[in-house]
Amino acid sequence: MSGCSKRCKLGFVKFAQTIFKLITGTLSKDKIEDELEMTIVCHRPEGLEQLEAQTNFTKRELQVLYRGFKNECPSGVVNEETFKQIYAQFFPHGDASMYAHYLFHAFDTTQTGSVKFEDFVTALSILLRGTVHEKLRWTFNLYDINKDGYINKEEMMDIVKAIYDMMGKYTYPVLKEDTPRQHVDIFFQKMDKNKDGIVTLDEFLESCQEDDNIMRSLQLFQNVM
Predict the structure, then answer these.
(1) Which residues are in the EF-hand domain (predicted)?
(2) Most buried residue, 9, 53, 113, 215, by most Cβ within 10 Å?
């Protein structure tokens, strides 16, 4: 493994930890300034001001995120293997590979096999600080694995099972093998309002916003993002 590859993987673990701090609100203004002082940002994304306008992150937060993204990996892009290694370290008691695969392809909106900083931070802005409607639309896109504009039961099953696999046996000590299938059967029945075997975006949005149980379950996804 090249030195650049090692630095890239180490850098994105740090990057993921910074994201976690943003999620939990533990990245204070003083901490942001300390992090900025620790390392000089040698590269700067073009359109930082534009990203600030397009996202819900402050300029300082964008600088911290960008430093972790580009300073540690000069190529400026993340590939799927790096995604998988990050999630494997955060969820050591489970198998995060499939969830990382699905999540990566949701971030890789152009289907190029790599994710740029702009793509990543735009999606993070939605997931961490977007409106309920924005988060639900993004989540629908994650579940729509084949990108045909609909969610079928097998697609929902694939995502839900990937989340259960990632959380591992220590998180769910009494989890039965058929629990993900039962979970999906109940939710799909609620969402597929016209019983045509697929869930449209409108059905997904309506079902999630009118059913507190579905909304609470979707929090699992946001918490493991």
Answers:
(1) 95-130, 131-166, 179-214
(2) 9
Mean pLDDT confidence for 194-207: 95
Phi and psi angles of residue 47, each rounded to the nearest 5 degrees, phi first = 80, 35
SS3 39: coil
CA-to-CA distance for 35 and 104, rounded, in angstroms? Answer: 27
pTM over 0.70: yes
Q: Cα–Cα distance between 71 and 50 in angstroms, integer?
A: 20
Sequence-distant (≥ 6) Cβ neighbours of residue 149 within 8 angstroms: 200, 201
What the block records as the tokens of 177 is 């093998």
Q: What's the pLDDT tens digit per position in 78-131? A: 889 988 888 888 888 889 999 999 999 999 988 889 888 888 889 889 888 888
Q: Single out the residue of 97, 88, 69, 95 nearest to residue 12, CA to CA.
A: 69
Q: Are the C-beta atoms of residues 59 and 50 closer than 8 Å to each other?
A: no
33 pLDDT above the threshold of 50: no
φ, ψ at 44 (rounded to 5°): -140, 130
What's the average model confidence in pLDDT over 128-140?
89
Residue 204 has, within 13 A of its CA and on its CB side, a CA count of: 24
Amino acid at 47: G
140, amino acid identity? F
The CA distance from 142 to 140, in Å, is 5
Q: Distance from CA of residue 210 to its chain's centroid?
A: 24
Q: How far apart are CA 193 and CA 172, in angstroms?
A: 31
Q: Across the strands, what pairs with 152?
A: 198
Identify any residues that bridge with 115 across adjacent strands, giving them in sequence order.
78
Q: What is the model's pLDDT at position 101?
A: 95
